[in-house]
Design brief:
Elements lengths: L6 H17 L12 H10 L5 H14 L3 H5 L3 H7 L6 H19 L7 H4 L7 H11 L9 H10 L7 H11 L5 H14 L22
The structure holds iron/sulfur cluster.
Length: 214
Amino acid sequence: MKKLKSTKEVHIKEILRLLDEEYGTDDRCFLLYEKPYELLFATIMSAQCTDDRVNLVTGTLYKKYTSLEAFAEADLGELEKDIHSVGFYHMKAKHIIEAAKMLIREYGGEMPEDIDELTKLPGVGRKTANVVRGHIFNTPSIVVDTHVKRTAFRLGMTDETDPVRVEFDLMKKLPEDHWTLINLQLIRLGREICHSRKPLCEGCFLASECMKRL
Ligand code: SF4
């Protein structure tokens, strides 16, 4: 006999269908990069900063520092000035130089794929590591940032609020082909409609499926 699907499965499936319809299924990263380490550093810089601002800064930065070695040998004060406008520039510049040194020293200049290895790099938590895994290695990875955390909870996709718990919960509930994509879709939802202070529920394309846990 065919197993009946639970309400939650149906509910999430319908939300994914609507997200695909509205935002498409292109899972290209919003941050611009060519080399793997450039995505890593852009992601480090993107904490508490917009992707547009980071892209503006990296557009110049990656022309000035053209190799991992160049970042490893960078002068801290000068790099701070170069990335000043992304905010928290002292800590971010320090992490970038230290991460570049560690990639050269421990990994022969290559990007590790393993999440435990990635999170050993300075300034790299699960969120940044999952961005790298999803976009560099095409390993299905769920990146939980502030938009994903907020919107997934409001929609009723998860009951968790801690980012790591949200990540593991969504891994259980979502099909793998949506693991990398869900971050990009929920970021757009959070930026354009489901704002943290004033969500535009009226007219939202997900209103019929949303638990609206505001
Ligand atoms: S209906 Fe409201 S709470 Fe639900 S996703 Fe849309 S804007 Fe957010």
